[in-house]
Amino acid sequence: MKSVRGKRIIAAAGIAAVLTTAAACGSSGPSKSSGSSAGGTGGATSGVTLQVLIGSSGDAETNAVVAAGNAWAAKTGNKVVVTPAKDLTQQLTQSLAGGTPPDIFYVDASKFQGLVKGNALADVGEKITDSTDMYPNLQKAFTQNGQYYCVPKDFSTLALEVNTDLWTKAGLTDADYPKTWDQLETVAKKLTGNGVTGLVMSDTLDRIGAFMRQAGGSVVSADGKTVTADSPQNLQALDYLQKLAKEGALKFPKQVDTGWGGEALGKGKAAMTIEGNWIVGSMSKDYPNVHYKVVPLPAGPAGNATLSFTNCWGVAQKSSHQAAAVDFIDYLTTVDQQMSFAKSFGVMPSRQAAKAQFTQQFPDQAAFVTGADNAFGPVGFPGFDAVQKDFDSKIQGLADGSSDPKSMLSSLQKNATDALSNN
Amino acid sequence: MSSTRSQENRRQALAGWFFVSPALLGLIIFLVVPIVLALYVSFTNWDGLSNPLGGDVKWVGLHNYQQLLTHDGLTRTTFAGALRNNFWFVLFVVPAQTALALWLAVLVNNKFLKGRSFFRTAFYFPSITSSIAITLVFLFLFQGGGAVNGILNWFGIHGPNWLADSRGVIHVWLSGVGITKPPGWTQHTVMGQSLWDWFSGPSIAMMVIIFLVVWTTSGTFMLMFLAALQNVNEDLYEAGELDGAGSWQRFRYITLPSLRPTLLLVLTLGMIGTWQVFDQIYLTGNNPATRTPAYMSFDQSFQNNHFGVGSAIAFLLFALIMVLTLLQRRILPEEID
């Protein structure tokens, strides 16, 4: 019995060893290409190794951050090790719980408040050069209790992407790009048929929320203190989308065997989709032969509105290299560096000073930039994640009527209120 | 005389402890400590962003358990949904995999079967393949426009969008016989779910996972049955044959009773394993129609930073498995009196 147990322990140890090696391989893959350069006469903060954990969208983004890290390292005599996370939330949580968080990491706007509450973020927002030049609504996303914790890295907004070939085939012209909900319905119906769906968009509040805003509704009040989900405005938005879904002019990606709107557009299963800036990179990489155009989202009864998504460069409260981290972030958020990120992986600079340059270089992405003026950030209080997932899971039922907009909103109201009161 | 003897005894005991200490240490560090810590965390509001034993962590008593069991809110509704999904999963998988495993074992135990070792290997193969890899293949097969629906199409059957279909099979069947609206008495709610929802049956998405799991695990259990079959005394069969027992009667009155301990083992292991199903659920995405308590525990802990609730789920699941296993042993005693 003893030997069996011993063997089991040895086996367990062996498995653990294998796992550790595997994990090491996993992280050494990307960090192999990451920066380690010595030399240079640094200032007060030379000779420091900064650990940077990023939630990368792909090789393009990882390489761009690594290159920026190398350049800064060479300039200051420090070292930067960039690790792209497979699951940022989980990996960050683990390292924070272990007491050795990375010095710098991406913070999603929806996770920001939780990190502040957990006392994990250092308050460095205002230490960055000209940090008030960032778009005001992005600053607001990273401000809590009057403190501007971290500077926005970049941002994306939602816009309407149209497959121009299918568009002309349906007899539509440039003048027909929808400006209102009614027009959107008309063109979506016109484009539907022959295996093509007029509009395909992801079944999540991160898309539907734009329609709620266009109707003048929201999930929480502007001060974030009251839940306003079961409003007539939100109901109007859901009713509108349900109508489209019942007419077959709106479908969700899974219904057309795709993972997200970009794939549906690229595969020609959707004539229109609603996605953010990230679609540009993946369209040119995965579907280079598909012609499409980005136009602003149509206005709803309450006018124009879209959603914005953003990350900030968070600095760990427990980091012992906060000065160096601030210096590095300062470097990363210059207009030049933000433009270089924009070129590499298609995000929009968070600095207003870079707006003109961006519009000039990427005229076909103008619709994303114009969205910035009437963009709303995500709902960010801790615990809302689960509430949103529950809501999202019911969206697909709008099409066959198994989900009722009114009860969806009332349970959203109830669950969100509950989650908010737990904070 | 007796004192030297007891000294000797003590020395032997000491040596014994010394020899088992590596194993013991391993058990304590990797098993006992984490379990005790998890139990502690289930009574706190630990968010995973700091040291669980540090000052930021608040003791909340039974709050997490209340959220799961008594407080009328999203957590309880989600947990009830997860329990429901897993209950139907167990109800379908355990009998199916046991029956299939037994049948396969009897087949490959046949002395006159040609290429026996080939079939044994073939049937065992799904068990040793990575569950992640197999699940991925299934994800492709069961896409709305995947191979399975392609084949169904040849017969003029329009297959559902399997993994995105959250309708319960009992609901589907009921609507087939004309009952689409839930009858009044099913509106009574238990743990935030109406009886109508509890009796939905596994969702169509879950049926795919049920099929997958039955197929992959029956190989392992086949092996257990096979070992047991080879221990059945040949004389019994000869005696049975002399008494004029047919092949079904030999199976029913000789094979099955001899396999009783193995059957119990397979049923118990099957039940424990199926209540803990995770990988397949994780890969098919965060779909409420397939979510199980084990997945919810992970989701609450690592995605929502509610480690307290996550640990509480783990302990509730442990209690549930314990109770069901004991119950099963009661109903199916190992020895017949």
From TrEMBL, chain A:
Compositionally biased intervals (Polar residues): 404-423
PANTHER family recorded: MALTOSE-BINDING PERIPLASMIC PROTEIN, MALTOSE_MALTODEXTRIN-BINDING PERIPLASMIC PROTEIN
Record-given protein name: Extracellular solute-binding protein
Signal peptide range: 1-23
Annotated stretches, region: Disordered: 399-423
Keyword Protease: no
Keywords: Signal, Transport
Superkingdom, natural source: Bacteria
Entry keyword Transcription regulation: no
Gene3D superfamilies (alphabetical): Periplasmic binding protein-like II (3.40.190.10)
Family named by the database record: Belongs to the bacterial solute-binding protein 1 family.
Matching InterPro entries: SBP
UniProtKB/TrEMBL annotation, chain B:
Pfam families, per the entry: BPD_transp_1 (PF00528)
Occurrences of domain ABC transmembrane type-1 (ranges): 83-328
Keyword Secreted appears in the UniProt entry: no
Transmembrane segments: 12-43, 87-109, 121-142, 204-229, 259-278, 306-327
Chief site of localization: membrane
InterPro entries xrefs: ABC_transporter_permease, MalF_N, MetI-like, MetI-like_sf
Membrane topology: Multi-pass membrane protein
Top-level lineage group: Bacteria
PROSITE patterns documented for this protein: ABC_TM1
Keyword terms, alphabetized: Cell membrane, Membrane, Transmembrane, Transmembrane helix, Transport
Localisation per UniProt entry: Cell membrane
Similarity comment text for this entry: Belongs to the binding-protein-dependent transport system permease family.
Protein name, as recorded: Sugar ABC transporter permease
Organism: Catenulispora pinistramenti
